[in-house]
Amino acid sequence: MPDLLRLVYASKANFDTSVAEGEKNPALSEILTQCRRNNEPKNICGVLCYGDGFFFQCLEGDRSAVEGLYDRLLNDGRHRDITLLSKRAVPQRMFRQWSMKFMNVDSKIRRMLQIENLDEFQPHSFSDLMVERLLVELRDASEKRRPAPIGTQGRGASARQAGAARELMPGLVFATAAGVLAIVFGLMLAGLI
Ligand SMILES: Cc1cc2nc3c(=O)[nH]c(=O)nc-3n(C[C@H](O)[C@H](O)[C@H](O)COP(=O)(O)O)c2cc1C
Fold first, then answer.
1. Is residue 46 pLDDT above 90, yes or no?
2. What is the pLDDT of residue 99?
3. Which of 17, 29, 79, 96 is the most buried (most CB within 10 A)?
């Protein structure tokens, strides 16, 4: 069984963050281009969340691949104050459809922060529980609800279609079962069986 690792860290952006969130920031664009280029061949996936000049990133993949990437990240001058929030072996991935999902901090995340009495997105101070809650929120956030500013960040159309098919499957099974039952009842009522 592969040694699957989930690593989460917080950092502060070192580049000009004056471009409003939701608009294209060239530095962010470049980072996401690198994520897409490098992560898929290494079978690394995850999410990068940005807000108020801070990053919150989750990396998932084979232990050696994730640790290698984290070492590179520690030496990347585009961010600083890199703080490990969580690093643990996990049975399965949360972001398997994404070479690197990108999310801006939005109103729903702001509400989560308010509940925790946090005025700003400062992931360095997040509790373990907040880290887990935010990961679930980021995993479940749809692209529609939160259009990211920088093009498409997924692992390609086929992976997204496969993900969508997986999500639709339970509904499809239920609809088919309901249809079969309706036909059986109809036949019984008609006295045919
Ligand atoms: C906040 C942040 C997140 C990053 N995330 C990734 C990532 O997920 N994958 C990656 O390959 N590089 C990432 N990078 C860039 C790496 O630090 C490094 O520059 C890059 O991997 C080098 O790739 P290259 O050798 O193809 O130029 C990130 C950089 C920053 C500042």
1. yes
2. 95
3. 79
